[in-house]
Amino acid sequence: MTIKISIDCMGGDHGPSVTIPAAVSFVNHEPDAELILVGLEAEIGAELKKLNAHNHPRLSIVHATEVVTMDDPLEVALRRKKDSSMRVAVSLIKEGKAQACVSAGNTGALMAVSRYVLKTIPGVDRPAICFPMPNQKDSPTYMLDLGANVDCEPQHLHQFALMGSALVSALEEKTKPTVGLLNIGEEDIKGNEVVKQTAALLRADHERGILNFYGNVEGNDIFEGTTDIVVCDGFVGNVVLKASEGLGRFLKNIVKSEFKSNPINMLGAIIAQGALKSISQRMNPSRYNGASLLGLRGLVFKSHGGEDAFGFEWALKRAFDAAKHDVLAKISTTIAALMPAQEGTAGAESTGVTEPTQQKSA
Amino acid sequence: MTIKISIDCMGGDHGPSVTIPAAVSFVNHEPDAELILVGLEAEIGAELKKLNAHNHPRLSIVHATEVVTMDDPLEVALRRKKDSSMRVAVSLIKEGKAQACVSAGNTGALMAVSRYVLKTIPGVDRPAICFPMPNQKDSPTYMLDLGANVDCEPQHLHQFALMGSALVSALEEKTKPTVGLLNIGEEDIKGNEVVKQTAALLRADHERGILNFYGNVEGNDIFEGTTDIVVCDGFVGNVVLKASEGLGRFLKNIVKSEFKSNPINMLGAIIAQGALKSISQRMNPSRYNGASLLGLRGLVFKSHGGEDAFGFEWALKRAFDAAKHDVLAKISTTIAALMPAQEGTAGAESTGVTEPTQQKSA
């Protein structure tokens, strides 16, 4: 079964010099993948030639004349750059030409464009960003939302829990993945009103057998792997994600600097180079690259803007796996079974940016 | 100049078996310290005897008949256990017999008891928990609030910034420590309404030369040491603190397990044992033990409940340094110069628990 993925090749800090080598490597390793490379044709073509991949049967180019930069305001991405590689790549899903899309571009712009082009799944008020964090158990802790929604109401966190649960049950093949609600204590009385009301909704779902709600979890539980999914608002999630990246880099630097501190330690490092290499790999955030934008009528994945080809390829792999496991249908089915469809709430109004010239789709 | 510190010797997971050895070690290293050991006299006496310190001229015991356990609800700590070691230790500050107090007991109970006994500084609506996080620059990032206030208004975050700034300028002898506001992006338009309004208050202070406001910071900035102080609400702060502890343990385990994975790596570990020991020390959270409860009319420090004697001694050191640098007067002066005193807002009502039998002090 062929899976078609559209790639915004111009996005991220490095553009085609990273996205094209990643695409070529991925398509060579994955015989079921077909990749549509979107962006400035000349630049993409030149990169492909360098890698001797310009005639690859499962790579095609779709030309797009504009590029959304990391600094572009949402309005520019949405209203002015209608022929951006990002928008064209996302639109290929809508047109049925791709099953998933990957971009390393500006997260806010990618969310706004995806939401505008694809709309949300009926029953989902707000899409969320979901990311697999590493943990002690060596199976990821899927955390959402990681920054799409700074203020959340209980029903939003409730929807995040349902979407996360559908994603993990599809991707990790767990029938009843556990859901934890991020809080500042395990007891029911802890936390703010939003968290307490969310817990009540999740408990009700648990009693109805819809969700495997574990209860409140704390910050440390993310890395202990206490639950498969951790639900939080986008403010908290984004801060935790970035703090973890910062702490990881800090600790990695400590390890590096200590082993270089004197000749004896350097000798030890040479002898135990296998251990150090393995530590470096396990602490490498690229292995966890690729966040899902959940709740849209299409699979969109965001790669970290600063990632190299190795990291970008991980994001491609995640998109491929999600399409292969039919994550979209599973999320839609889960939400549809529980929520009354609210056609009116989906779409452009809720991104805070409207585009009057384009027709609104259903 | 002698600094007197009262110690709740019964608090924490281990009680006198940890607090007494820490106290004895600290008093032996610090000739200007005088420690008042509060708790069950027989238990404290027995531990002192074990260490041959029962006649130490700068150690005294104050008997308290009750103990606040880690599981006691706030009401129990506040209303029922009036002769708890925690409450008696805090009261010694109020009575002018100690300049600072240290407890490893339940954080919520310690905050409620301290707030009830000591009251807040005029102009401070809510006390906050402040903790020095390690960073790349090897000078701590002071972060507050870390869990006392789950919902904050802009004026609360504003007060946290002022208190944190006064604390750091006293402790670290920096005249103009930098203040960052934790957010999900550096741009002014990022974040929720509370954060945006707080930024406006902090910018105004900056323009008046009262505060050195850096602007918004992100999660990674905590560990990069971008600013001396990072201000956030207690929900976010608590989650970040616990997530960091969890990630730190996780990464430490990776280092350990890789060096034990085969005989060659083990040999390397033996040769580079100096590096590994140093890594372990630098990754040891005990070095950073001791959180300040800021905004009270007295210096109260909280040690992590699970710490050993080494960690508890760090908390004693922090309390000693704060008293020595007259942190309390500096915070009170800073706040008094900026805020109109609000006598009515301080005290017991705001803890959510009232104690009708005890007279209210000014």
From TrEMBL, chains A, B:
HAMAP family cross-referenced by the UniProt entry: PlsX
Coiled-coil ranges (or none): none
The family this protein is said to belong to: Belongs to the PlsX family.
Catalyses which reaction(s): a fatty acyl-[ACP] + phosphate = an acyl phosphate + holo-[ACP]
Pathway: Lipid metabolism; phospholipid metabolism
Assigned keywords, A-Z: Acyltransferase, Cytoplasm, Lipid biosynthesis, Lipid metabolism, Phospholipid biosynthesis, Phospholipid metabolism, Transferase
One Pfam short name: FA_synthesis
Example of a GO biological process term: phospholipid biosynthetic process
Role, per record: Catalyzes the reversible formation of acyl-phosphate (acyl-PO(4)) from acyl-[acyl-carrier-protein] (acyl-ACP). This enzyme utilizes acyl-ACP as fatty acyl donor, but not acyl-CoA.
Name the UniProt record assigns to this protein: Phosphate acyltransferase
Top-rank lineage group of the source organism: Bacteria
Annotated compartments: Cytoplasm
PANTHER family: FATTY ACID/PHOSPHOLIPID SYNTHESIS PROTEIN PLSX, PHOSPHATE ACYLTRANSFERASE
GO terms of molecular function: phosphate:acyl-[acyl carrier protein] acyltransferase activity
Transmembrane segments: none
Main location: cytoplasm
Quaternary organization: Homodimer. Probably interacts with PlsY.
InterPro entries assigned: FA_synthesis, Phospholipid_synth_PlsX-like
Originating species: Noviherbaspirillum saxi
Top class in the EC scheme: transferase
Compositionally skewed regions (Polar residues) per UniProt: 351-362
Disordered: annotated span: 343-362
GO cellular component: cytoplasm
EC number of the protein: 2.3.1.274
